[in-house]
Amino acid sequence: MDVKAYMTQLGQQARAASRQMAKANTGVKNAALIAIAEAIEAQREALTAANQIDLDNGRNNGLEPAMLDRLELTPARIDTMIEGLQQVAALPDPVGEISDMNYRPSGIQVGKMRVPLGVIGIIYESRPNVTVEAASLCLKSGNATILRGGSESINSNQAIARCIAQGLEQAGLPHSAVQVVETTDRAAVGELITMPAYVDVIVPRGGKGLIERISNDARVPVIKHLDGICHVYIDAEADPQKAIDIAINAKTHRYGVCNAMETLLVHSAVADLILPKLAQLYAEKGVELRGCEQTRAIIDCVSATEADWQTEYLAPILAIRVVDDLDAAIDHINQYSSQHTESIITENYTLARRFLAEVDSSSVMVNASTRFADGFEYGLGAEIGISTDKIHARGPVGLEGLTSQKYIVLGDGQIRV
Amino acid sequence: MDVKAYMTQLGQQARAASRQMAKANTGVKNAALIAIAEAIEAQREALTAANQIDLDNGRNNGLEPAMLDRLELTPARIDTMIEGLQQVAALPDPVGEISDMNYRPSGIQVGKMRVPLGVIGIIYESRPNVTVEAASLCLKSGNATILRGGSESINSNQAIARCIAQGLEQAGLPHSAVQVVETTDRAAVGELITMPAYVDVIVPRGGKGLIERISNDARVPVIKHLDGICHVYIDAEADPQKAIDIAINAKTHRYGVCNAMETLLVHSAVADLILPKLAQLYAEKGVELRGCEQTRAIIDCVSATEADWQTEYLAPILAIRVVDDLDAAIDHINQYSSQHTESIITENYTLARRFLAEVDSSSVMVNASTRFADGFEYGLGAEIGISTDKIHARGPVGLEGLTSQKYIVLGDGQIRV
Asked: Where is the signal peptide (chains A, B) (predicted)?
């Protein structure tokens, strides 16, 4: 197979389909989403059978249990895929929204119209349900999509692709609006990320290694999410109960997620009061603590090294540092944060306002758990990822992040003088 | 000189300064802009003397007259620089704007805050006034800047840099908030565009060759403007006078600008009526016409080749094509446009609405000259460039395009359940 020719063909088809998708009205796009949901419901057995092939191959190839778990399409996960499609159908359509129309002295009226990005390339690892999630968000936002899933889920992804094609066709949309790459050849990824004529943006979903590789090699813009080294700062004027509730929730609600707290900063004035209680609660949950010297003078824990401040544990481990004021907390965050999500716990108005303004992360919070940094919790309906980039979209990326705004100008014959 | 070490140092200083700039309030930033204007006014003689060195070197090195013209800091251009600074000081500050604060079912309140991008690298060619224009927009939007001008304007740029440093210092802002690269070594550009730790976005200003090179080699996002192959489509239901006024203005108001029309599309039903009048007016202005076969059946002109549809002439040359309907016009535009600016001339509501929705360019107009695609005309106050990219910012990029939005979350102790 000539991978370059094949990917070029997918790209050309996607570009052509993107023009149709940009014109498709909300009703048609919603009908396609519902038809895809119905096709998945009708083809549960075929999906499960295809997934079983992937699972068998995975076991034979010695895939780790965690990978096999992510690969599996359980009945509950198929239900979730169907519900997700229905939810995306129910979301408002961002495309075509006109805003800020103002008259200028020349007599022209200038404003902005929200438009799809065009063709979105999605590169992901083993979870086959990403195929439906990503396709549905791109479809609703009027984009064409090229999906490249992990090679270990190829049969599952192809089966899902057939459901998507059926739903698109039923709604009268071009089936190349959503294309799943059929080859497992790794060269396909290299082509996909270097076709600026056919692909407008790449969204990689997966581990930091994958995302760094793609960002380095891409010749099209990448909406990327690297790591989540999130901080909670307990200020001297924190409400102790809020501080404890949030510090426990942000670390222990789920360990393997990007919005979990990895480093806790505590003001020296309240460290004696707060840290012993927290240490006891963390111990009950089996969280290993690694503290700075001041922390270790108060509670019993191992010594934190420079590496700890830079680590996204994704595990029941927490680094703790005692700081002397807000500036020291912000300095620590600016130095070590991955600019994902940080929260201050305080009752002090001025410090809360400074933290919001001065912390340069995609989500900055006051008196709330970092675990809220999520498209559903923010009301975006769904998310294609959480961007730690600074341009285009920061934080959870929903339908709006898959669009941009062009200028529109209404005149009645104006010329420039 | 160790260029890598030098550029790394500039980057580190810029990153540190960007934190100060992000905190600087509107009054302080405006005071710096005014102080820079005053420093330029006070140092007119020094600026002119430094510029004279560049002009002499340029002449000795055989620079073309057009390049020498762009390089020259005339008294009028110094006036314009001073006025530009005063205008940017008068613009609203985009930083800190909070929008869309909504309560979520969990009780948290979620919205967005507009924030600077951080460090912006500007790469430009000979015009030294860009140094002040770019620096003032980055300063007002709370960013630190590293400016790399053309080597032929190094003395002028250094003299301007001294005025900027003086103004920053006077306002109490770090002078490394605006740094002008002091070496003319080309390796400095290579370093600047591959320091993602220190530079958040690159804005290249110059010819297409420069911008393509930078886009290819950059490892940080680039806000870029490639070419402007702009179209005007005269529909069957166009008001003939508006059509003629706009077609003449869009082509002949200025030839060397990116928002000039390069291809005129005319509906076949009105070609007989419109083209002879236009041909006469263009002939009076010395515009060479290159037409499709249908055009040549109506007016006398040379034959347009495939290359003509793909060319940004930046000259008194116009390609003309007769089309049979709106779909054919949109197909032509989608195939050949550089997605800069297109305008339809029509009195038909439905066709105007379709053109606005379906043409995928950064500015789409109805009954207005493409020459309006400009930051000043759109009311942005000033522009750092016109983006033909699809993500982050499309069209004229003003202060807002030099910022992005982070999420802010206000809670009173909420945890994720």
From this structure: none
pLDDT digits (tens, 9 = 90+) for A14-53: 999 999 999 999 999 999 999 999 999 999 999 999 999 9
Q: How far is CA B381 from the centre of its chain?
A: 12
Considering only the beta carbons, identify the residue of A22, A361, A411 that sits closest to B358.
Answer: A22
Residue B278 tokens read as 């236009």
CA distance A80 to chain B (A): 19
Closest B-chain CA to A338: B197
For the domain made up of B3-223+396-409, give the CATH fold. Answer: Aldehyde Dehydrogenase; Chain A, domain 1 (3.40.605)
| List of E strands, A127-199 | 144-148, 178-180
Q: Determine the topology of domain B230-372 in CATH.
A: Aldehyde Dehydrogenase; Chain A, domain 2 (3.40.309)
DSSP character for A199? -
The minimal CB distance from A242 to the residues B108, B368, B413 is found for B413
**Residue B343 · residue B370 · CB < 8 Å:** yes
Question: Does the beta-carbon distance from B369 to A414 stay under 8 Å?
Answer: yes
- Is B219 an 8 Å CB contact of chain A? yes
The residue type at A240: P
The secondary structure of A333-354 as a DSSP string is HHHH--SSEEEEE-S-HHHHHH
Spatial separation of the C-alpha atoms in residues A383 and A394, rounded to whole Å: 12
pLDDT in tens, B123-174: 998 789 999 999 999 999 999 999 999 999 999 999 999 999 999 999 999 9
Distance, in Å, from the CA atom of B280 to the CA atom of B275, rounded to the nearest integer, reads 9
Q: State the smallest CA–CA distance between residue A94 and chain B in angstroms.
A: 13
In which residue are the tokens 């700075």 written?
A292
Burial code of B354-390, b = ≥16 C-beta within 10 A, e = fewer?
A: bbbbbbbbbbbbbbbbbbbbbbebbebbbbbbbbbbb
